Amino acid sequence: MAVFKSWISSIQYLRERSFQGEGWDPYWRAGDPLVESDVVILNFVLDCIGDPEERGEALQRAWALAHDYLMVTVRRDRALVRICPYWDGWLTRWGTFQRLFTQGEFYHFLRETLPGT
User: Other C-beta atoms within 10 Å of 50: how many?
Assistant: First the structure.
């Protein structure tokens, strides 16, 4: 099993195995174009967006870019150190936002944000 420390290492892993892959990051590669792809992967992206409306827009944009598959992962770790409530999640001791979804909450979010899927 491959363990990735960043999206950069996951893209590198895929390229080393003859897959085409691109990465995009709002901080590190914000100027790069978003491209339509057969597979779009959002690994621990949505759970780091504090504004619920922006979170939904990010999911909708990713869905629009995916030709065949959209894979989404979110944090469920309830043991995460919580400092204070913020929007519908928590600010961590590192000053980052985390929305800790239950399976049911995430399913509802997907169905509400992408109706008909």
Answer: 16
Which residues are 98's β-sheet partners?
90
80 and 98 in contact (C-beta within 8 Å)?
A: yes
Q: Which residue has the higher pLDDT, 2 or 103?
A: 103
- Helix, strand, or coil here: 105? helix
Residue 102 to residues 30, 45, 46, 94, Cα–Cα distance (Å): 30, 16, 13, 22
Cβ(60)–Cβ(45) under 8 Å?
A: no
Name the pTM for this structure: 0.78
Contacts (Cβ under 8 Å, ≥6 apart) of 13 = 2, 4
Note the Cα 45 to chain centre separation in Å. 2
CA dist., res. 92 & res. 30, Å (int): 24
pLDDT per position as a tens digit, 58-116: 999 999 999 999 999 888 766 666 678 778 887 887 788 888 888 999 999 999 999 98
